[in-house]
Specification:
Blueprint (H helix, E strand, L loop, with lengths): L1 H22 L9 H8 L6 E5 L5 E5 L4 E2 L3 E5 L6 E5 L4 E2 L4 E2 L10 E2 L8 E5 L8 E4 L5 E3 L22 E3 L6 E3 L5 E3 L5 E2 L8 E2 L11 H6 L7 H4 L3 H39 L36 H9 L6 E6 L7 E8 L3 E4 L1 H20 L3 H12 L7 E3 L1 H4 L5 H16 L2 E5 L9 E12 L4 E7 L21 E6 L7 E8 L3 H16 L5 H7 L9 E5 L12 E6 L4 E12 L1 H7 L3 H4 L6 E6 H10 L3 H8 L4
Antiparallel strand pairs: 1-2, 3-7, 4-5, 6-8, 9-10, 11-12, 13-14, 15-16, 17-18, 17-21, 18-19, 19-23, 20-22, 21-22, 22-23, 24-25, 24-27, 25-26, 26-29, 27-28, 28-29
């Protein structure tokens, strides 16, 4: 047996070595990374393939070190210690990672180029953010992203998908585009519009750095001198007119196509009630009063950014709604509640712990009470629970395992309490879209995993004989660029709401600006600076949580919603995290009806737990089988 194992290891080493030679890669291919790590390092998590300070690529087994965003790890001279280096100008690293997670040697994300027709750089980004682009409106180009809707008068955008770019936008006679791609009257003689001004500013009518397209020249008022037009021969004029006619016809066809597409989408969504954001003005803003907890409430802000149609189609096409459920909590005593959960693993649901907290805490306090009044064995167990606050520690909350040392009659009675207080008090209904309702399931009193500290719960479904579980959702097994995400949840226990294209907060300076502006706003409404700072205290950039703004309301009851991105390699939806709560709490309790505060929704911040943190939690509590089951991967 030992020889076979040794032979297997040799085969693995040979395969990885041949892979290096064949692909000429300095580090293992991503699919061979784990095999290489297991072969070279006693502890595979210590494996690194990084640059040295001299620029050489080396493989070493070194204890992992936390690397700040905007940096990447390199080996110090001697190759026994790791230090940080700033990302090169063409790359960026938006989130903090451990050094052993860098599998591309340097920073993981390449900045996009602004090199499409009519496109130019707006902001070169930083070591933590991507480059932003804009369209040269002075040449008649407008941003496709803002073609239908630009409520916040933006000109710059992130070139992160094929659905973003520039298109020619025809304006009527005597009109031209401004910096936010609106058709406005042309500037009078001696004035022009720069990239930084809405209004006309003194200077040349046409800056020397740009060359106007024939379409733009014809839209300028005839009273304005245009030497280029005066010098044109008759044939050139005819050619220009033909070019304009063709361009205008094509542009009109594009507008008609987009209009028909949106009309079809709205009609489809009216039937399915699954909002695809073709007309975001129809989306109501919802926010309800906080229902306890130390943090803020669940969610948000009615800011709508455009969402690529292809991502909508992908989410629709994979029937995501069938795997997301509305959780209803009806305890024997106390307030009813709602939340969101989604299918994971073999037969489980993931949600935020505070959604089911009331039911599980009352149940375990009742268990403690009955054990305390029982025989000596029961009292011993009650003392253990009492030392933990009458609740189990973070990890597996299994009544069945705790009671194994007790007599069968006591076990039976306490399990009956679990069925009565948990199974009969909590349920989840999947596929709640419009009038449609899928199957309803209850939960076992044995929870697979609960973390009060991190607000996470993995609950086991109970089902009737022959009742199939909905399909499980897939988690991401690699790092995706963290710029946008989508949220699907059940606000206030209602139908499923699709909250698309939420912008992720990855810049420390922007986060600080948000907090500073919030202090100014709320202190002007009677709050002290310390009160506001306390509300935002938990809002910190870290690898453990995802901070983001939402593009529309997903209010009370959406805790536990999956946070989705579309994997570029497979074009499939994947889970990158789970929604927990929103900040500041005072907004939901005191200012949700305040008109002035409602005008500043960008000051509201949502928080979700990241997938990598979930995996780390499971491993810390020695639940490797749970990692394998939910994430479909081996340690």
């Amino acid at each position: 047996m030992g020889e076979k194992i040794f032979d297997s290891i040799q085969v693995i080493f040979l395969i990885t070595t041949l892979a290096f030679v064949w692909t000429k890669e300095p580090c293992p291919h991503i699919q061979l990374w784990d095999a290489r790590a297991q072969f070279l390092c006693e502890d595979p998590s210590w494996y690194h393939c990084l640059e040295t300070q001299a620029g050489e690529i080396k493989e070493k087994c070194v204890k992992p070190k936390s690397i700040r965003s905007g940096h990447y790890p390199v080996f110090l001279i001697g190759e026994t210690e790791i230090i940080e280096r700033r990302c090169p100008p063409t790359l960026y690293q938006p989130n903090e990672l451990m050094s052993n997670q860098f599998k591309s040697v340097t920073c993981m994300y390449e900045k996009d180029e602004c090199n499409d027709d009519g496109e130019e750089a707006c902001d070169d980004g930083s070591d933590v953010s991507d480059r932003m682009c804009r369209c040269d409106f002075r040449k008649g180009y407008g941003a496709l992203e803002y073609l239908l809707n630009n409520p916040h008068q933006k000109s710059c955008y992130l070139p992160t998908s094929n659905e973003r770019g520039c298109v020619m936008i025809p304006c009527g006679k005597g009109k031209e585009l401004n910096k936010v791609y609106q058709c406005v009257p042309v500037c009078p003689s001696g004035y022009y519009r720069s990239h930084y001004d809405f209004n006309c500013v003194p200077g040349r009518s046409i800056p020397s750095s740009t060359t106007e397209s024939p379409r733009q020249i014809l839209t300028i008022d005839k009273k304005i001198e245009e030497p280029a037009m005066i010098d044109q021969e008759g044939d050139d004029k005819t050619a220009s007119i033909v070019a304009i006619a063709v361009t205008t016809t094509i542009a009109l066809m594009i507008f008609i196509f987009l209009g028909l597409y949106c009309f079809w989408r709205r009609k489809y969504n009216k039937n399915s009630r699954f909002d695809s954001n073709c007309n975001s003005s129809d989306i109501p803003f919802r926010s309800l009063e906080v229902d306890g907890g130390d943090g803020g409430e669940n969610l948000h802000k009615p800011i709508v950014d455009s969402l690529p149609y292809s991502e909508i189609d992908i989410i629709h096409g994979h029937n995501i709604e069938e795997s997301i459920g509305c959780i209803t909590v009806e305890p024997q005593a106390g307030r009813k509640g709602n939340g969101t959960g989604f299918r994971v693993g073999e037969k489980y649901v993931m949600t935020a712990y505070h959604v089911v907290q009331d039911v599980f805490e009352k149940f375990w306090k009742e268990v403690h009470k009955r054990l305390k009044n029982g025989n000596n064995e029961c009292k011993k167990l009650s003392e253990i629970l009492e030392s933990q606050g009458c609740m189990p520690k973070d990890g597996k909350w299994s009544l069945t395992e705790i009671l194994m040392s007790l007599d069968p009659d006591t076990q039976k009675k306490l399990k009956a309490v679990g069925i009565d207080m948990v199974t009969h008090s909590c349920r989840i209904t999947f596929g709640c879209v419009g009038e449609k309702r899928g199957d309803t399931f209850t939960f076992s009193y044995d929870a697979l995993f609960i973390s009060k500290q991190h607000d996470v719960a993995i609950l086991e479904l109970t089902n009737k004989t022959g009742q199939p579980y909905p399909a499980k959702l897939n988690f991401v097994n690699f790092n995706l660029p963290m710029d946008r995400l989508h949220v699907l949840g059940h606000p206030n226990g209602g139908e499923l709401i699709f909250d698309p294209s939420c912008s992720i907060i990855s810049d420390q300076e922007k986060l600080k600006e948000t907090k500073d502006e919030a202090i100014t706003l709320f202190t002007s409404h009677g709050k002290t600076k310390s009160q506001v700072e306390k509300e935002y205290k938990e809002c910190k950039l870290s690898p453990n949580h995802i901070l983001f703004h939402c593009s529309k309301s997903t209010a009370h009851g959406a805790s536990g919603s999956p946070l989705l991105q579309i994997a570029k390699s497979t074009r499939k939806p994947v889970i990158i995290g789970m929604l927990l709560k929103g900040y500041p709490k005072m907004y939901y309790n005191e200012f949700r009806n305040n008109e002035k505060v409602n005008k500043r929704p960008e000051l509201l911040i949502e928080s979700g737990i990241a997938v990598e943190t979930l995996k780390t939690l499971f491993k810390q509590h020695e639940l490797s089988y749970l990692v394998n089951d939910i994430f479909n991967e081996l340690n």
